[in-house]
Amino acid sequence: MIDFVQMTVSGIAVGSAYALMALGMVLIYKASEVPNFVQGEMALLPVFIAYMLIYSYGQSVFTAFVGALAFAMFLGCFLEFAVVRRAKNPNILGLIIITIGLEMVLLGFVSWKFGADQRVMPFPISSYSSVMFGNVYISTLDLLTLVAALVIMVSLFLFFRFSRLGVAMKATQQNETAARLMGIRTNRVKMITWGISATVGTVAGLLLAPVFMEPYMMWDPMLKGFAAAVIGGMTSLPGAVFGAYIVGIVEHLFGGYVSMEYKAVVAFAVIVIVLCVKPSGLFARHYVKKV
Amino acid sequence: MKNTFLAVVMGALLVLGFVPTGHAEVGVTDTEIHIGQWSPQTGPAAPWGAVARGTDAYFKWINANGGIHGRKLIHHYFDDAYNPAKTIAGVKQLQEQTGMFAWVSGVGTACGLAVKDYLMEREIPWVGPSAGSRHWVTPPQKHLFNVYPLYLGDAQLLTEYAVTEMDKKRIAVVYQEDDYGKQGLEGAQHVLEQHGMELAAKVPVSISDTDMRPHTMKLRQAEADAVLVFVTPGHVARLLGTGKAMNFEPQWMSTTTCGDFPLMIAITKGLYEGVITASFGMAQPTGNVGGIEHINNPNHELMAKYKTEVYDAFAAADERWGYTFTTGIGLAEPLVEAIRRAGRDLTREKLVAELEKMENFQGLMGRITYGPYDPDDPLCRIGQQEIFLQQCTADGGSKILTDWQTTEFIPMSQ
């Protein structure tokens, strides 16, 4: 029983990082209706910028992290403004290809600029300390990631529900033409959404970096975040978080009780099952466009 | 008329063997010897790209010192991103368009296997694949000379040490699901069977896995007191970190692949202290058991020489002086030595003959010995069979635990 509880807790712990990535993906999908495959690299580059600020410019960890988050905001806005918006009459496939292309460009840039060596990010909390609940452990870094994921989810929920910009984002996602007619600058709204998405992803990156940093560090979390977003329905923030915890827990229980060999791919089996049973995802709400 | 005359003369020269290069062997001219190599400079395995850069700096140093018998070594290395499809495309292109005299090193078992038949069918020498795989000598190939000690040997020596010297009772293996990891598992099981013991746990790791919690839980459930890890340095770092957070701290042991202590200390934030790994060289354990080696201030004479003459002079400014870089030198040394011994009249046949005569040759690695080609004897191409154990110190130094130990070759089960 202890093992089952430990596996579940560990699944929730790893699910928190997936949740942050999934939230970022859902934000962009809601605004631009594109599965964003550059999500991981939009977090990767700011993480390496933070590392550079610490080691090359002698900045404190706090300053470097704030700088990284600010840079992420800028990077997300820039990518939307300079690349995605320029696509002429884009269809979904075209946009997906654009995000994959951007992913390769950013990954190549990080590999070229910072090299392939493995490294770790300094962090105020030790990535090796843990909190014990009886015989069940959770590392303090995992606990922080869990709290960050929940705080960001609640903040985004409140933002979309009560802020003018959040409501404008929802309106843009539901009917862009109507939103524009109502005076909403939809292009600007989309740009800011990309910025917020990159910032949320960067939080995940900064919480993963104290354990391990390398140019490919965001690939697995991005894929699992994507799986979580699909399970949740691609347009639901709570759905993305719920999907992320499902992925994390299923992975751990599957690895513990069934097969460690196939643990890494079980998330995608879950996607297939969910899409067969409920194609729109577990939490999606449909907005029917009336003619 | 003039052109026809010229063509006839050139044709006659070619027929008579008087080609303008003055030498008939592919990849060898009057002034140059062309050597090929692949390595991942990009992609997830890019940290191992330093092997090729080490070889490159080593060849530049040789050329700066006059080359070999008046010829420069021209090093052609390309980035295959650890992708066998790219390896074979790059090897074919270089071999068929430029013409390599021989190939050296080449990172990765899968990448090497992709081109092994191509090179062997054309009788092109290939020296020192950068992976300790049994495939290089099973069956032995006339033109393929292994240098890198097999991972089987690492596992044997580590397990033997854990059982006999450290009195460990519950030994577990964490292994990557490929040739590297499975050899480690087999070597450990082989030694444990000899001691009438069984593995406490065997935990596979997928190369794409970044979450080591389930793996660590398995090890903890098994109450392992020593864990042999045959995975990448990144996975080792995550395993140790997760283990520390779970209050699970067995004696961690690993292979030559994870023996770059300064790097490992940095990426584990000091957790690597006390970890025991196998080593294939870069230090001289004989007469130095209990001593401590530091790569930045090596006692090993040749290492010190290469640091100042090769690395300082010819490596790129952002290159790290580490064991991956020096492995690129160590794997190329037997080839260079054989070219030197073959003399000015260099042919592939002479190169192979000189390699076969090589006995207890020692550069940065352990002693390397080959023998006349015997298709039934893997040892005629195995090269180095001795390794030693070292333990990581707090500052990334290597405490030498054993002298050179010769490991047993275990044939591949069919």
3D structure, described in words:
- The complex is a heterodimer of chains A (291) and B (414).
- Chain A has 291 residues and is mainly alpha-helical.
- Chain A has a single domain, classed as ABC transporter involved in vitamin B12 uptake, BtuC, CATH 1.10.3470.
- Chain A has eleven helices and two strands; from the N terminus they run ααααββααααααα.
- Chain A has a two-stranded antiparallel sheet with strand order 1-2.
- In chain A, strand 1 and strand 2 form a beta hairpin.
- In chain A, helix 1 (2-32) packs antiparallel against helix 8 (186-208), helix 5 (140-162) packs across helix 6 (164-174) and helix 9 (219-232) crosses helix 10 (237-257).
- The longest helix of chain A is centred in the N-terminal third of the chain and has 31 residues, at 2-32.
- The longest helix of chain B has 20 residues, at 323-342.
- Chain B starts with a helix and ends in an 8-residue tail after the last strand.
- The model of chain B is unreliable at 15-21 (pLDDT under 50).
- In chain B, the strands form two sheets. In chain B, strands 6, 7, 8, 9, 10, 11, 12, 13 and 14 form a nine-stranded mixed sheet that branches. Chain B has a five-stranded parallel sheet with strand order 2-1-3-4-5.
- Chain B folds into two domains: 24-149 and 301-383, Rossmann fold, CATH 3.40.50; 151-279 and 388-406, Response regulator (Rossmann fold, 3-Layer(aba) Sandwich).
